[in-house]
TrEMBL record:
PANTHER family: ALKANESULFONATE MONOOXYGENASE (PTHR42847), ALKANESULFONATE MONOOXYGENASE-RELATED (PTHR42847:SF4)
InterPro entries hit by this protein: Alkanesulphonate_mOase_FMN-dep, Luciferase-like_dom, Luciferase-like_sf, SsuD_RutA_monooxygenase
A Gene Ontology biological process term: alkanesulfonate catabolic process
Pfam family membership, one: Bac_luciferase
E.C. numbers: 1.14.14.5
Name of the gene encoding the protein in the UniProt record: ssuD
Presence of keyword Flavoprotein: yes
Protein name: Alkanesulfonate monooxygenase
The keyword Disulfide bond is assigned to this record: no
Protein's job: Catalyzes the desulfonation of aliphatic sulfonates.
Length: 389
């Protein structure tokens, strides 16, 4: 890390649709379970992650409700939860957001989700075409922001009508919880320029991320605004590069060609997301060209929708790749790994020291000063470092 780069803001992921050891297999899989989510959240809180992303969608637990539960079991962890314009009114979402920010003592982050699967959106009562959804979202957040920042709002818009909307209690954060957003289409970028605090990109090669950042910056500057930038990535970090690549191969070792074909066909048929199209283009469903940029591996995207790339390597290697993204303007990472509980430990223990992040919070002393060596957990306790001859 250079003297000009601040440590990254590093978030983890709560896998609310389920977790597992092998992508595309039911071997050693873990179902969606609230107790398991609490294990991941409390681990992330202790290990030094600043927050967690809670995903949204029909296959996921509801993010606001789950965040409220996890907030009661954590101390400093922030919760990046989804607002989906059209599934409820801006006034209702303002009440949800203000209350969750208050009960968590200011630990709420908001993730704007406009796009996705048109079939799923139709099930939620949203029938607008792709670009028009962003026009609707523009009106939605004009009301939402005014309401949560001032306590009142009015708008007689094309899509949103709020007459005398009021909010009884303000959020803890001033003027409101930060707004995060990811979208790669022209309409999405224009929307982001007017409203969001943090623009998130999926893990594309650095040259593509640089182009996207430049586009968003120009759009925001045209509206007199500054936008921060983050990246959504998976991580496969091991003590050596060789071990990391072996772990990547093992992650998809039970994935069949038929499963890949079915997943890719489903993405093409059901999604109108430009970002999803860009993810698919990195690998086109092929196993033989998965390293799409140095240490950027697209194997997860063979079957996972949304973020489909991982940084693979030793701590020094992955830290070097992250510094390349930092040099482009990335200051936030939303990370994950399979399984999420174990990989939260690996990333914290191996990678955090290389990127200038502290280790676990509130560690209790384990000795009176002698450096302890783990002795296997026997009754005699740990060993002490012995000076070698």
């Amino acid at each position: 890390m250079t003297h000009t780069q601040k440590p990254l803001d590093f978030l983890w992921f709560i896998p609310t649709s389920g977790d597992g050891t092998y992508i595309g297999s039911d071997t050693l899989s873990r179902p969606a379970d609230p107790g398991y989510f609490r294990e991941i959240a409390t681990a992330a809180d202790r290990l030094g992650y600043s927050g967690v992303l809670i995903p949204t969608g029909v296959a996921c637990e509801e993010s606001f409700v789950l965040a409220a539960n996890l907030a009661a079991h954590t101390e400093k962890l922030k919760f990046l939860v989804a607002i989906r314009p059209g599934t409820a009114s801006p006034a209702y979402y303002a009440r949800l957001a203000a209350t969750l920010d208050r009960v968590s003592n200011g630990r709420l982050l908001l993730n704007i989700v406009v796009g996705g699967n048109p079939q799923e959106l139709a099930g939620d009562g949203i029938f607008l075409p792709h670009d028009e959804r962003y026009a609707h979202a523009d009106e939605f957040f004009r009301v939402f922001n005014e309401l949560i920042e001032t306590g009142s709002a009015d708008l007689d818009g094309q899509y949103i009508k709020a007459i005398g909307a009021r909010l009884g209690f303000p959020p803890v954060q001033t003027p409101r919880p930060p707004l995060y957003f990811g979208g790669s289409s022209d309409a999405a970028i224009q929307f982001s320029a007017g409203f969001v605090d943090k623009y998130l990109t999926w893990g594309e090669p650095p040259e593509q991320v640089a182009e996207k950042i430049a586009t968003v910056r120009r759009a925001a500057a045209a509206k007199g605004r500054d936008v921060g930038f983050g990246i959504r990535l998976h991580f496969i970090v091991r003590e050596t590069d060789e071990e990391a690549w072996e772990a990547a191969d093992r992650l998809i070792s039970r994935l069949s060609d038929e499963t890949i074909a079915a997943a890719q066909e489903s993405f093409a048929r059901t999604s109108d997301s430009v970002g999803q199209t860009r993810m698919i283009a990195l690998h086109n469903g092929r196993r033989d060209k998965l390293e799409v940029s140095p240490n950027l591996w697209a194997g997860i995207g063979l079957v996972r929708s949304g973020a489909g790339t991982a940084l693979v390597g030793s701590p020094k290697t992955v830290a070097a790749r992250l510094r390349e993204y930092q040099a482009l303007g990335i200051d936030t990472v939303v990370a994950s790994g399979y399984p999420h509980l174990e990989e939260a430990y690996r990333v914290s223990e191996l990678l955090f020291p290389e990127i200038g992040l502290g280790g676990p919070r509130n560690q209790i002393r384990s000795s009176f000063g002698d450096r302890p060596l783990f002795g296997g957990g026997g009754h005699g306790g740990n060993l002490r470092v012995v000076s070698g001859s």
